[in-house]
Amino acid sequence: MTVDVVTRDGAQEHLSDDALADLMARLRGPLITADDPAADVEPVPVWNAMHVDRPAVTARCTGTTDVVEAVTFAREHGLLLAVRGGGHSVAGFSTVRDGMLVDLSPMRGVQVDPGRRLVRVQGGALLADVDRETQAFGLATPLGRVSETGVAGLSLGGGYGHLQTRLGLSCDNIVEAQVVCADGRIRIASAGSNPDLFWAIRGGGGNFGIVTSFTFRLHPVGRVVAFTGMFYPLEDLPDVERRWRDHVVIAPDQVTSFIVTMTFPAAPEMPEVIHDRPVAIVGGVYCGDPDDGMRVMQPLRELGTPLFDMSQPMPYTAVQSSFDPLFQRRSLRAYWKSQYLDELTDDAIDAIAGRALDRPAPLSLVNTFHIGGAVHAVGPQETSFAERSAPFMVSIDTNWSDPAQDAAAIAWGRAAWEEMTKYGNGNVFLNFTGLADESVHEGLDSAFGRNLRRLGQIKATYDPDNLFQVNNNIMPAE
Ligand SMILES: Cc1cc2nc3c(=O)[nH]c(=O)nc-3n(C[C@H](O)[C@H](O)[C@H](O)COP(=O)(O)OP(=O)(O)OC[C@H]3O[C@@H](n4cnc5c(N)ncnc54)[C@H](O)[C@@H]3O)c2cc1C
Question: Do 291 and 381 fall within a single domain?
Answer without folding.
Answer: yes
